[in-house]
Amino acid sequence: MPETVARPERPDVPAVSRPPMVVAVIPAYRTAAAIRSVIEGIPSLVNRVVVVDDASPDDLAGEVSAAAGSRVVLLAHAKNRGVGAAMRTGIAAALELGADVVVKLDSDGQMDPARIPDLVAPILSGEADFTKGNRFHDLRFIRAMPLVRRLGNLGLSFLVKAASGYWSVFDPCNGFLALRATRLREMRLDMLADRYFFEISLLCEAYLTRAVLRDVPLPPRYGDEVSSLSLAGSLVEFLPRLGGRLVRRFGYAYFLRDFNLVSVLLCGGLPLLLFGMLWSALHWYRSYATGVVATTGTVIIGALTIILGFQLLLQAVVLDVQSEPGRPR
What we know:
The protein is of the alpha/beta class. The protein has helices at 32-40, 60-67, 83-96, 116-124, 139-143, 147-164, 181-186, 198-208, 231-256, 261-290, 296-322, and strands at 22-28, 48-53, 72-76, 101-104, 130-134, 177-180, 213-217. The relative contact order is 0.11.
């Protein structure tokens, strides 16, 4: 007789009459040297392992075949499409296999497969729909980062919080994550980015399904090496995308799906702030061009509208933070 999983704490998460099926998805490119040890290190809690060979030029497929057992599925792209595209392929395969939980980990060995049970535990207990590893919980990892990179990560983290709506997540670019399959089926997977913006776009899409996110402290398995990406380049590349995701999220959450106090504050605060800035800029330019100092009333109009608009938008942000899915009230 199959084991019955206890009913989770969240009422919207149904209990299942069989052990939950956990599927790990590994997007792989140029990691033939590490992929075999990654696969062999995945614990027995994981029922199936989907490896997506993203047109890797090395002998990655051969290494996967050498490590493959009955639970390993190897898929391949004809040309390199990026980590996000590989994940979309892997997620589709995992859902077809009947996954209840989908885990994503990288193929380079920098994520410890032995920590997968810690990552999926909040999902299996019904406490969360989405979990992400948090490297910054480990003070040794933080101390190993140069100050400039540390500040850059803080800035990027804040921008991602605003764009995604998950204000409590602290390591948004961490690719070690797990998701409940029912939430994945609700998401628009076609909106996920193909390449390194994938993790951030996944956060943004998960928010639109009201998935409850939890950080799980998971230290990395490397020392001084933090990332192969240029942080400055990422900020420049990601900034317009983050702005677009922010506008899309607020449009969905506060104007299409609902109209509440945040909507009213946005409708009042944004026009006031823009008016005050344009008014002040115009009269400053006139004063500069003509040499005539602006009147006190002119200055006060600009200052008051800017201050009032900023205060309204700040209150909207406070309420948005409080409305994060699963945030304790």
